[in-house]
Design brief:
171 residues, alpha+beta, 7-stranded mixed β-sheet, 5 helices, Bact_Acetyltransf
Length: 171
Amino acid sequence: MVRVREMDAADIEAVSTIRVRGWQAAYAGIVPQPYLDSMTVEGDAGQRRQRFSQPGRKSRDLVALGDRGPVGWICFGPCRSAMPGPGRVGEVYALYISPDLIGRGIGRIFLGEAHAQMKGQGFEASALWVLCDNQRAQRFYERAGYQADGAAQDDVYDGITLTELRYQRVL
């Protein structure tokens, strides 16, 4: 069983390992392989330390703790893009689980906690972005009540343009 708690600075290396290994597993065959191969835990941890120490940051970071320490990470906060309709919208910026533990319910636990915290902060809905070709993630979020809302954006990785779809759900 896992327990969820607020991330602290001591978790940065573990979270960077989870994120980098998560990208390399989830996006193989979607994001260009040279881009995935160039990702390093050290580089990610350096960027994460800078972001984590920024005063006034509005994002929240949680870790899932298992027998071996952190096994998952979720980051969420206010929606970064304009959303149609009334009400405040939160956004799940990132959710990664150690690849060997995917499918054990950790992601569902994380989303439940993030949704509860967003709701407690006055958000009425949650949004997130999923790569168009990441069918596994799309199915996961759809089972959690998210639906694609028709918005799309492009990101470029090593000269290759990949499309992300925005998903939303009411909290």
